[in-house]
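not sure who needs this but someone in the group chat was asking about Sodium/potassium-transporting ATPase subunit alpha-1 from Varanus komodoensis so here u go. i didnt clean anything up, its just raw.
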Amino acid sequence: MEFKVSLTHLESPDWLWGMADARISSTGKSFVLRRSLQDGDSARRAAESAPRGAGAEPPEHALSLRATGFRQAEAPLPRPARPGRCQLCRGRASFIRREGAGRRPLGRRSARAHSGGRPTSGGRRALPSRPFCLRAAHTWQSLLASLRLPERATPERRAVGTMGKGTGRDKYEPAATSEHGAKKQKGKKDRDMDELKKEVSLDDHKLSLDELHRKYGTDLSRGLTPARAAEILARDGPNTLTPPPTTPEWVKFCRQLFGGFSLLLWIGAILCFLAYGIQAATEEEPNNDNLYLGVVLAAVVIITGCFSYYQEAKSSKIMESFKNMVPQQALVIRNGEKLSINAEGVVVGDLVEVKGGDRIPADLRIISAHGCKVDNSSLTGESEPQTRSPDFTNENPLETRNIAFFSTNCVEGTARGVVINTGDRTVMGRIASLASGLEGGQTPISIEIEHFIHIITGVAVFLGVSFFILSLILEYTWLEAVIFLIGIIVANVPEGLLATVTVCLTLTAKRMARKNCLVKNLEAVETLGSTSTICSDKTGTLTQNRMTVAHMWFDNQIHEADTTENQSGASFDKTSPTWAALARVAGLCNRAVFQANQENVPILKRAVAGDASESALLKCIELCCGSVKDLREKNPKVVEIPFNSTNKYQLSIHKNANPAESRYLLVMKGAPERILDRCSTILIHGKEQPLDEEAREAFQNAYLELGGLGERVLGFCHLALPDEHFPEGFQFDTDDVNFPVDKLCFVGLISMIDPPRAAVPDAVGKCRSAGIKVIMVTGDHPITAKAIAKGVGIISEGNETVEDIALRLNIPVNQVNPRDAKACVIHGSDLKDMSSEQLDDILKHHTEIVFARTSPQQKLIIVEGCQRQGAIVAVTGDGVNDSPALKKADIGVAMGIAGSDVSKQAADMILLDDNFASIVTGVEEGRLIFDNLKKSIAYTLTSNIPEITPFLIFIIANIPLPLGTVTILCIDLGTDMVPAISLAYEQAESDIMKRQPRNPKTDKLVNERLISMAYGQIGMIQALGGFFTYFVILAENGFLPSSLLGIRVAWDDRWINDVEDSYGQQWTYEQRKIVEFTCHTSFFVSIVVVQWADLVICKTRRNSVFQQGMKNKILIFGLFEETALAAFLSYCPGMDVALRMYPLKPTWWFCAFPYSLLIFVYDEVRKLILRRSPGGWVEKETYY
């Protein structure tokens, strides 16, 4: 990229702008821009004659070309002559006088010119069409945007990408030039999302204090003036996060009423009303069946919709996260006075003070600090509090020490800083915008239900149209044909299935809640079961989010720490004098204390005031050596030097409880190498020995080994101060140190780690056997991340990374073929430079992956990469940094205890116990509900065939109608409902967590094999059972099957009262109808009888019913319930009037028994072949 810029600047009372030429050469193309009102000569003459002001321009009116990538000195810009508003930030605007146009700001009318539109006089292009304030970068952002420079020419171009530059206040949309105007641009939303996904680009941490003062116009000792603060507040708006867009409640309710399956039922209801309307218009006494059916269908949709809405509303009452994110008060310095103001009033350039316990009110550039530490875990995922100081320590703004971020907590110490970003422009605001702007997409179960609707609709329309044509061929009237068409379509709609699916999902959601998984969205229940990749956060999810002492090194040996309450696992000699000395230093040189009134609480569960490392040391010493409080009371502290980033040690001097040793004892802890440098001796078996090369080498080996385990290592030393130099009452001075801080005695090392949760390794193992890939995505250090990944089994034993292979073969890393390593650890800085193709390659060819030091934007990119591979991705996380990835994933899983409110808002499911193992339970439940929904749908659809075929035979063979519409409703919404729901309680089959995750493209909820089984096999046997019963009853009443063919017209004619049966007996219309309705009842009862067998065979898809057993009590209840309901409808007095159902002879109940037994035997034989010949023809054709 090459820039060539010349700028002739005019300062004139006539608001004359001079000529600005910009030439940009990029990848062989040349773009030329000319902005001019006057020719060059007149511009120069104007410049020479213009009077000069008495003083330098204020710093904010200077143009920093550095910000846009130009290597050129700063050039002053003119002060505006009169007030106006900048079109970019609504600040004060520069005014320009056009030739013959009078004095006015550059207006909106010239928008075309700004995007490379019409040329002005002289063939030159018009000036940029907006007035710009004198914040130089706004002017130059617009100039460069109008040129459509390649992205890296202006790396800090937009939004938070220009954090703290004054240019980051707004989102700029690059205008198309005449050369590029024809190119199709992305939609605004896509562009915004692409910008948000870019890494945080911030240069304030690199600026000196003088540059910081010039940039923000802030007096670094007195702060802003109230007037200036008010002006900035009016320009930038309040320091608040824009709340995420919420869906109105009425829209949510309408989605439940008109979404997915409900729509099919509404269509069915409308068709019923249409059929009734046609009948009412053409018949004197129309049949009311279609009217009843329409009303019932509408009622089913409304009741089920209300139920679903209630369930979802109950599950989704999550806190108003963004309000909770903003601290209420902030301490600012304005005009030299300290003021406590509402945090919303903090503005860019404000001088802010924070102390331990405060939340950071905005993004701050630290200018002074005293022992300040902040908890960045919700932003970066690091467990350990991070030190803040004025020092620039890292190019990455997220890792440097001189930036403190909005909404993180100050744990201890004090700091003063300049506000560099507020509200949505902060790093946290950017993440919140990214999360709220992401589209979640359809859940897998909603896709499956949509697919199911397509199948059912297709079958219904095909049958309806086919028989409509057939009825016309058979010379039915077109009105009759239309009624048949509607009847067949409605008969295909499984009215009770919507309620069944909703109840099944609700029951599973309640069952998961008992297992600590709160489901916000019912459809997320099944999504978790479909998961093929889990991207898990480390801190707090895989680990306990509390530092714990893991190892100690003393007496030249590494010992494993025992952190059990009863100290049953101690692996070292607690009587060692060296251990006593090490424990004494760790207990005394420690500011952590147990909070009050916890004497009866187990030590490991006690709340501690202090940072994570010191808390771990306190608990360890309390467990191993007894009361630390007593130790401190016996050895009272005299003086202390807190830890700071320069010394990298903490030191305290105590009165010695052991007078034989000395009067005063100096203890120190800190970075091991710094501590060792201050020592001349080492304590071995209680005796001081010279710190020779051998001892140093032993220290180095131990330090490397513990560090390689991903543990945080601290060194400890002490010194008994000689009594002759330090008598009683000696005044120790920590500013002008008057005591020795070197030639000390090294005691040992203690290492700490945030340990894995106990149940996680087993859970990861279950995921692996279930074919689920577990990827760790963390903001922590790669060594720590790798150690935890190995500890929990994400990197399994024996699998190596390229670094491990290089170490084993003693060759450079770049000589190792990455494909040889099954595992890999990717650093965030490497991921930043990767293309999508490279990321895809890693995800495809490595089975065990750890991403460390990742940013929130990178977590999102990783999720998208997994989704490109066709994976259904679950993402776990607890921090604000996880929320974009949680929202983008197919299912986001937030932590209920440690999780931030924003992460809970973005997630679909919340783990109430923060345990990764609960996810595996959730996966099992999700797979189980998918299996059980399949079984429930198979059971429900099977009865469709015996419901549809009577109608079809009625049309084709012209026989009396075997089954009425009302009776169909009694099956779908009566007898079938409880049995269908009871399948949701069915236990898992033996292979549920041993099979691969389902492929959403091939393994559908309803596939052709399920339709084949339900409609083509079991359904046909059921229909045969129904027709057998129907013909038996009619035969017993005198109508043999042969005499029924073609009898329909005479049978249904109310004016014919002399229809003869096979024996010559005449039947009136009323008598015929009683026999017909008795047939309807018997057909209904026969469906109930064959559905007994169907319910039992639907318990399993592969296992034998004898293997599975009959342990499902709800299912057994369902069998009795449907039988009792059928008997009630048949025998209850008054049913002949209400539902036209008549009592049956007891023998007629047994007509369908042989068919029920046939269904059971047929399916058991099929499943036996399935188990005996896996992958065979029977499995391919019938295993659904």
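also The mean pLDDT is 80. if thats useful
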